[in-house]
Design brief:
It is built from 20 helices and two strands. It has helices spanning about 5-20, 25-50, 75-100, 110-125, 130-145, 155-185, 190-195, 205-220, 230-235, 240-245, 250-265, 275-295, 300-320, 325-355, 370-385, 390-400, 410-435, 455-475, 475-490, 495-500, and strands at about 60, 70-75.
Length: about 525
């Protein structure tokens, strides 16, 4: 048992109350501790990712209670990669919040930020479905506060909508957990993987209901159509650094689907047959289409970016719904890309707002720093639309290649390529209005002078763009790693043996258990 795996959860859990109690009136001290804490998270996450890179499964038993009776944290290639991605994203988001002054526009930003990280890290590392619910609630409670940071009626209305939709998801999650516990007598994921195999074919009603409810819950978290209504207003009205951090939030839903439906309810289990291809794939294709149509129809830049996030999640879910090692590897590559691209675009939208005063897609006079902002927007738009040479293009190629053996290959290719064309048109329209047509507008001498974005703001956005470039340059290495990650997910026996001490799934199901 290793103790390092609990550090990504404990560190922000200790920092948040310290910031509230000892530095609540000293923004400078809050900033120092918050940045140092995130740097420590990155170092810890990198160490955990290195330890698991050879296939090792790390286990931490809270209170030294063995599973399934005790709470466990488990680290494998997938969970440690997501932890590292979150920590790196958090650093650039935090630098932007400090450089732009967003963190000083309301109380407790840094404490809520740390609590948010605690919830996200816990969700990725937990080995228990009930504690997945607990960490979901932790990150959601923190996100409620972050959403309404700096106040405003529009932000408050969006926050209420966000709360209501996620409360529905939480309620469904509790119903699903109750159904699973009633049928299997455990909520530990490794233990469940063994017990689901023991359920006879005539006693599967409860576990089927639970599997469907879990899929609904995770689809809400992933903003999958038609459960996506909470996302456009919530992300568009949230402060830009908060929306950028939220780029990883939808990936928590995708992660949960990958984890639960490769370990507990894999495609070859008769209990949940049809959930992946019959229901998940059509919803993912519709999400992709609607998201990119929203990009073309948006009248404000922040709404355009939120719809691009919905579309990118549709792309991720299309790949996940195929449920083959190749498709999961492609989905994991695209998850990293879409997280970085979405976060960069949210921060770029705030640069635009700072320079021109609003985000309406109407021509205005050139703003201070418009040239650099336009260049960053150009790169971010290429990445999100999936144009070569950046990682979005490579990710889409991987998804299309993974769909070769699918019976829905024609639908997948048509919708993926068609939505890509629509997103290109949408981003090109927005960029031309914001930056190109601006040069034909007369400058109003009497208009109030707007602030120029700070150097640190550009550094933070530039860091995310640099990561996108690195994700492209090292695409072969990253995809090779996600391929080994997918292979580990489809052979969960070492994970199960590490957690519960049994060799994994039984070779033949038995009648009853």
């Amino acid at each position: 048992m290793t103790h390092w795996i609990v550090a990504p959860v404990i560190l922000p859990a200790l920092l948040a109350p310290f910031i509230v109690l000892a530095a609540r009136y000293h923004i400078g001290i809050q900033r120092v501790f918050s940045v140092v804490g995130v740097l420590a998270l990155i170092a810890t996450a990198a160490g955990l990712a290195w330890q698991t890179s050879d296939g090792t499964v790390l286990l931490y038993q809270l209170g030294d209670w063995a599973a399934p009776f005790g709470i466990v944290l488990v680290g494998d290639r997938l969970s440690t990669m997501m932890v590292l991605l979150t920590a790196v994203l958090a650093l650039f988001v935090l630098l932007y919040a400090i450089g732009s002054g967003w963190d000083d526009r309301g109380r407790h930003f840094h404490a809520l930020f740390q609590f948010q990280l605690m919830g996200i890290m816990g969700a990725f590392l937990t080995g228990d479905l009930f504690n997945l619910f607990v960490f979901f609630e932790v990150l959601l409670i923190a996100s409620y506060g972050l959403m309404i940071h700096a106040g405003g009626d529009a932000r408050l209305r969006a926050g209420v909508q966000y709360v209501l939709f996620n409360l529905i998801g939480s309620t469904l999650f509790l119903f699903a957990l109750g159904s699973i516990y009633a049928e299997a007598g455990t909520l530990n994921m490794a233990d469940l993987a063994n017990r689901v195999d023991l359920i006879g074919p005539d006693a599967t009603v409860g576990i089927r209901v639970a599997a469907v409810l879990l899929l609904l819950v995770f689809a809400i978290k992933a903003a999958l159509v038609p459960l996506h209504f909470w996302l456009p207003s919530s992300y568009a009205e949230a402060p830009a650094p908060v929306a950028a951090l939220f780029a990883i939030m939808t990936k928590v839903g995708a992660y949960a689907i990958i984890r639960v439906y490769t370990m507990i309810f894999p495609p070859d289990v008769e209990v949940t047959a049809g959930l992946h291809d019959v229901w998940l794939l059509p919803a993912a294709l519709v999400s992709l289409a609607i998201g990119m149509i929203g990009v073309l129809a948006a009248k404000k830049l922040d709404r355009l970016i939120t719809f691009s996030v919905i579309g990118s999640m549709g792309m991720v879910m299309v790949s996940i719904s195929l449920f083959t090692p190749a498709s999961i590897a492609a989905a994991l590559y695209y998850i990293v890309h879409s997280t970085l691209a979405g976060a960069a675009l949210f921060l770029i939208s705030d640069l635009v707002r700072t320079g021109r005063g609003n985000l309406h897609l109407t021509a205005q006079a050139p703003a201070a720093g418009a040239a650099l902002t336009a260049a960053l927007f150009f790169v971010g738009a290429i990445a999100m639309a999936g144009l070569p040479p950046l990682s979005g293009f490579i990710g889409k190629l991987l998804v299309l290649e993974a769909a070769y053996d699918s019976s829905a290959i024609a639908w997948i290719w048509v919708i993926v390529l068609g939505s890509s064309l629509i997103s290109i048109l949408g981003f090109a329209r927005a960029g031309s209005i914001l930056f190109w047509k601006a040069h034909g507008v007369t400058v109003d001498e009497d208009a109030p002078q707007l602030d120029r974005p700070s150097v640190m703001s550009y550094v933070a956005v530039g860091g995310l763009v640099a990561l996108l470039a690195a994700h492209t340059v090292f695409a072969g290495v990253v995809h090779g790693y996600t391929t080994t990650m997918a292979a580990q997910l489809f052979a969960p026996e070492p994970y199960i043996e590490t957690v519960v001490g049994t060799p994994g799934k039984l070779s033949t199901p038995k009648e009853g258990y």
